[in-house]
Amino acid sequence: MQYSKNFTVAICGGGLCGLACAVALTRAGISVTVFEASSFAHEAGAGVGLGPNAVRALKGLGVFDAILARSGQPQPAPRLFAFVSGNDPHERIFDYETSCENPIALAIYRPAFLDALIALLDPSVIRFQKRCTSINISATGKHTLHFSDGTTHEADLIIGADGIRSVARRHVVGDYSADPLVYTNTIAYRGLIPTEDLLNAGIQTDLTDRPICFLGLGRHIICFPIKGDTVINVVVFLSQPDEPPRSMLPSPWVEAISQEQLRSSCKDWGHDPMIIVNHLTNSNKWSIHALDPPLPSYVRDKVVLVGDAAHAMLPHLGAGVGQGFEDVLVLVQLLTHPQTEKSNLGDVLAQYNDVRLPRANSVLQGSAETGRLYDSFRTSAQDKARLQKELTGRWEAVWGHDLDADVKNALDVLHRSNVF
Length: 420
Ligand SMILES: Cc1cc2nc3c(=O)[nH]c(=O)nc-3n(C[C@H](O)[C@H](O)[C@H](O)COP(=O)(O)OP(=O)(O)OC[C@H]3O[C@@H](n4cnc5c(N)ncnc54)[C@H](O)[C@@H]3O)c2cc1C
Known about the structure:
By secondary structure, this protein is α+β, with helices and mostly antiparallel strands.
């Protein structure tokens, strides 16, 4: 087969970011192989919310229409959160307003999202049940991926899209002990509840008009509809925001829990949060980890990180995968540029790093701050005013970022420094 570039690419991890990257690179005629540890049988069946910046990145990658078609939502639409007291009588604290131009967004069931991306790829591009255990540089100067089944694969460029527990990140930071992955003192219980069941149980807050955040002290609940409003995606967060982050917990980080355990963690909360908690029958408990401090580089040798591998963050801005899609868009635009070739890959990756690292790391830090804000709510008039002030404009920098300008800046540097 004739390829458009004189370099080969291996993508470690076939999650949302790895697959989106594979689709765009193969469409540009680049030789790509994706190595995915799972068979996808265990993918968590939760929903994921995409802000306007994520929608623009997916459009730029040419995959948005395929995703929209599987979302159950006829068109992307604004998703502006309403913040409601978790205590009775569920006072409305704040309705987020945006000045962002065209603030369209989408919420989608994760397995449907993955299916949409896989359908856009030639099956020969993805190898399932291939868990990468390490990366090194071979005598030929190529990078070698080593897998748990004893096999290896060589490529000129490795894209680490292997999520929060990334093996590729260990190569980039150079040493396992230098990996800044920590437990954030946050637990999340995730589940999906039929909208009708909540209505029949007498829930008072409208959960389909806007995404809702029920606020509390050391806890909050995120709710948004998916599958054409028939199902509510729920995440209950319990946190100790003032505790310093702790070193990584032993596996497993995701465990099934009993209804009684969840109910006892949420007792003394208002009418609507308790209805939600009582309906989370098949929920999993997630111990939320994140990078703290953020990475000082997303690139080492010809290994480049995207998505959670680069900037695993707390989910409180609903922006983790959106940052991953921004990474992928910038990386794809640079790699597919007519003047990018094997000999200048190092310079091109350095520009990716210069553009993406400050942007994604600032969203990572904003996500942690937002969690502290949500979980410090104390139902007083003074507190309400403080929250309104702090929440105003919080998503504007995330949603309004100009990615085209980032790519242009990176290309300008490559031209000015005679790499192109
Ligand atoms: C409770 C919660 C709610 C969230 N809600 C949102 C939201 O609403 N909006 C949002 O933008 N973000 C949200 N996020 C964050 C979002 O889930 C992540 O940012 C996103 O999944 C990252 O995508 P990724 O492709 O980088 O990694 P992943 O989705 O984790 O994919 C990584 C892939 O790599 C594979 N893999 C792992 N290790 C290896 C290996 N060694 N070898 C080969 N393959 C490997 C995995 O099997 C997986 O398929 C949430 C996160 C949590 C925890």
